[in-house]
Design goal:
The complex is a heterodimer of chains A (76) and B (356).
Chain A lengths: L1 H9 L6 H6 L2 H23 L5 H23 L1
Helix pairs in contact in A: 3-4
Chain B lengths: L1 H28 L12 H9 L4 E7 L2 E6 L1 E6 L3 E6 L12 E4 L4 E6 L2 E3 L2 E2 L4 H26 L8 H21 L8 H19 L13 H18 L2 H8 L14 H45 L1 H45 L4
Antiparallel strand pairs in B: 1-2, 3-4, 3-8, 5-6, 6-7
Helix pairs in contact in B: 1-8, 2-8, 3-5, 4-9, 5-9, 6-8, 6-9, 8-9
Classes of the chains: A mainly alpha (76), B mainly alpha (356).
Chain lengths: 76, 356
């Protein structure tokens, strides 16, 4: 009984905590992918490359990165 | 609740797209005897209402606009400072070489036939709405503060008894839980200010007439500034432990930090995506609510153009739905103000957390 009470004390979170935490995940993914793609495009423009290497690499990397962030937030 | 909203948005979008295809075909047929200006365009109608403006529009009677003029303040590189009322530019008028481009929503200066963009420091509709809400907040909180002095030790009265539970809720259930017993007090002024600023502007946005009707918290510039406050405070109060977690996170294998600082880059990106998400969430939720309500009203005119009786018929349904949505928006106004405050508090809590 004592233990249970302690446990609930520790896990006490402000109301709507989960809503606040998870409602931003989609926007966060979008933000990360946008940063990746936009950064890649700008880098290609800056380096004057014929084939947009950085756009391709960074957009793929940012997709994985956004998934990584979601998993990290879920595990926390 | 989010799912309902999503379904409503999708069905509204479909409702707008499908009739516009039907109209497009009809339009092609009788292009000769119908000018484009008579057509009701829901997109323009909605974005006119949720956007910012140089005057505060009330209503239109037989094509005659009634609005409150607002001051326009301009700095032009060619002719210096200018200040005049927005009525000077109404109805496509030109004044001192300035005119209002309705497509861009910006004031343009014409010098020798060439167009320039002046610096626009005008008190636009949203700025005016912010001033009004600030005045309202001062009035509410100063009067409540005085009431606490006047009946010290007595039970709260009137406005006091409405605000006291909210303030205590933010202090005890939000700040203390998210930041911690010791440090929460120094953040309370900011958290309470931001909560009431967002709440009052959300609620004023739901009032259809002056002094409401401006879409302040649904303006991405406003939410960006609010998120920027949170970001700046988080960065300034961040302690050793916080920065260590960013640049040299414990429990992470060394090859993720040297020679390529992969983890630090990811963490630094996280620093910026947090306030970005804060900005988008408030903006998207409030704008979506306004768009839905305006969309319901647009339906009346869309059906009314097909058939007058259909327009009257659908108006009963859409008004009922709009009232329902407004109640939902009332709830969302509180929830979004709370969520913004909660997340700000969580970030401050993360920044000031001690090593354990």
């Amino acid at each position: 009984m004592q233990k249970k009470e302690n446990n609930s004390q520790e896990n006490k979170k402000p109301p709507l905590y989960n809503y606040a935490k998870y409602s931003g995940i989609a926007f966060q993914m979008v933000a990360i992918i946008l940063i990746g793609v936009f950064g890649g495009m700008k880098l290609d423009e800056y380096l004057n490359l014929k084939f947009p290497v950085f756009t391709v690499i960074l957009s793929i990397v940012s997709v994985f990165l956004s998934i990584y962030y979601v998993i990290r937030d879920l595990l926390k | 609740m989010k799912n309902i909203r999503f379904i409503i948005i999708i069905s509204l979008v479909l409702l707008f797209i499908i009739p516009s295809y039907i109209f497009a075909e009809e339009h092609a047929k009788d292009e000769h005897h119908e000018t484009k200006e008579n057509k009701f365009s829901p997109g323009d109608f909605i974005f006119d209402h949720i956007g910012d403006a140089h005057d505060w529009h009330f209503l239109t009677i037989n094509g005659h606009h009634i609005s409150i003029p607002l001051p326009i303040i301009l700095y032009s590189e060619h002719s210096g400072f200018h200040a005049f009322w927005s009525t000077k530019l109404a109805h496509e008028h030109h004044y001192k070489g300035f005119h209002l481009d309705h497509e861009k929503g910006k004031i343009i200066e014409k010098v020798h036939g060439e167009e320039y963009l002046p610096w626009d420091f005008s008190i636009k509709k949203n700025v005016m709405a912010i001033f009004i809400s600030i005045a309202l907040m001062f009035w509410i909180f100063i009067s409540v503060g005085k009431a606490y002095k006047r009946n010290a030790g007595l039970a709260p009265k009137g406005m006091q008894s409405f605000l006291e539970p909210i303030i205590l809720f933010i202090r005890d259930d939000l700040a203390k839980e998210a930041i911690g017993e010791k440090k929460h007090e120094r953040f309370l002024p900011f958290l309470l200010s931001i909560f009431f600023f967002i709440l009052i502007n959300n609620l004023l946005g739901l009032v259809p007439i002056f002094p409401g009707g401006a879409n302040v918290t649904g303006n991405i510039a406003v939410t960006m500034v609010l998120a920027l406050f949170t970001f700046t405070i988080t960065t300034i109060v961040g302690n050793k432990n916080y920065w260590q977690h960013i640049f040299n996170a414990p429990g992470v294998p060394w090859w993720l930090k040297i020679p390529v600082p992969l983890m630090p880059i990811i963490e630094i990106m996280g620093m910026f995506t947090k306030p970005f998400v804060l900005m988008i969430r408030l903006f998207a939720n409030i704008s979506a609510g306004h768009i839905i309500v305006m969309g319901f009203f647009s339906l009346i005119f869309i059906f009314g153009q097909m058939n007058v009786v259909a327009g009257y018929g659908i108006s009963i349904v859409t008004v009922a739905f709009a009232i329902f949505m407004t109640f939902l928006e009332f709830l969302v106004a509180f929830i979004q103000a709370y969520v913004f405050t909660l997340l700000s508090a969580l970030y401050f809590g993360m920044a000031t957390e001690e090593h354990h």
